[in-house]
Amino acid sequence: MSHSTLATTVFSGVPRTLLLTTRARVDEHQRPHGILHDPMIAEWWPALTWDPALDGLYQPLGQLGWALRAHVFDEIVQRHLAVRSQAVVVELGAGLSTRYYRVGQQSHAWLELDLPPVIHLRHQLEAESDRYRLIPCSVVDWNWMDEVPECPPESVLILAEGLLMYLGPDEVQALITQLKQRFAGATLVFDAVGGLTRGRTAKQLASVDAPLKWFVNHERDLTAMGLTVVEARSLIQEMCRYRDRIGGFRWVPWLSKLPPFRNASLLIESRV
Ligand SMILES: C[S@@+](CC[C@H](N)C(=O)[O-])C[C@H]1O[C@@H](n2cnc3c(N)ncnc32)[C@H](O)[C@@H]1O
Predict the structure, then answer these.
(1) Are 63 and 35 within 8 A, CB to CB?
(2) Mean pLDDT (whole number) for 202-231
(3) Which atom of ligand 1 approaches the CA of 161 most closely?
């Protein structure tokens, strides 16, 4: 598909943040020995327009974190696909995720959901198929759940990467409750912010009209919301494995064990 005539899409609010995570994957793809290989996003990127209002948020540590988060989610998808021959994957708040092209093509069905302007842009970049669908819908409009093909709930893998922190706590709880009603036994993978992220990062995001609204201080708090946590990983601790990319942190990696650092961003695999 040629993208040369793609009209510039100007996003605001939370949709604009997709440029941060998209750029992080482009840069990671272009790095020698990068964590991610993502030729599709490199192909799309020249058709997109960077928003300078995001310059202050796009720093090397953030870039590493977003790329690594995408990689961890990829690994979970690969694990799921390896044991579920009829796997159905749903990416909520997908942005310009190219995960399907990286690791998803052996899924039985793959759904990408985002708000209508984002899906409109995606329609200009890629084609749908019977098994690969783009759904223009808010995650809190439960109608999207009707689009998920009939299958055993254990086959359903729902991903919410960089999304839930932008919803209000009541919306997150309502979403979990709905997921439990519709897909009990499915896997929900998401990231949650807390700890240090409540400070400077939250202020910076608020200044670009993308305020963080839902914070989680520890994965044990998720049980009360109805989730069974299968695994929780600290993104900061994962980042510390890349010593040459974490600046001054490399001299004080133990800091990542302290709750404000450990819980700044948690990657959660859970059962609904
Ligand atoms: C930080 S971006 C993450 C995009 C992608 N998941 C990634 O990691 O690259 C947040 C995304 O959530 C989407 N989003 C925000 N609110 C939403 C809602 N109520 N329903 C669906 N998508 C939403 C935005 O449009 C945006 O694409």
Answers:
(1) no
(2) 96
(3) 6
Q: How many whole angstroms from 253 Cα to the centroid of ligand 1?
A: 31
Mutational test site, ligand 1, from 20, 99, 114, 209, max ligand atoms within 8 Å of CB = 114
Which fold, 13-271? Rossmann fold (3.40.50)
Nearest ligand 1 atom, CA 171? 19
Give the three-state DSSP class for 3: coil
**Is the Cβ atom of 95 under 6 angstroms away from ligand 1?**
yes
Measure 93 CA to ligand 1 centroid, in angstroms: 3
Q: How far apart (Å, rounded) are the C-alpha atoms in residues 135 and 184?
A: 22
Please give the Cα distance from 56 to 58 (Å, whole number): 6
**Position in ligand 1 atom list of the atom nearest CA 11:** 25
CA distance 71 to 100: 13
pTM, rounded to two decimals: 0.96
CB 40 within 8 A of CB 112: no
- Tokens 């272009």 found at: 30
* CA–CA dist 129, 131 (Å, integer): 5
Contact status, residue 84 vs residue 131, Cβ threshold 8 Å: no
Q: Which residue type, as a one-letter code, is found at position 43?
A: E
Q: Please indicate whether residue 140, judged by its CB atom, sits closer than 6 Å to ligand 1.
A: yes
Quick one: average pLDDT of 187-191?
98
Q: 126: which DSSP letter?
A: -
Residue type, 231: E
Q: Which atom of ligand 1 is nearest to the CA of 66?
A: 8
Instruction: Provide the residue count of the chain.
Output: 272
Written as one letter, the residue type at 35 is I
In angstroms, the CA 30 to CA 24 distance is 10
pLDDT in tens, 64-93: 999 999 999 999 999 999 999 999 999 999
In this predicted structure, the answer to whether residue 2 has a pLDDT above a threshold of 60 is no
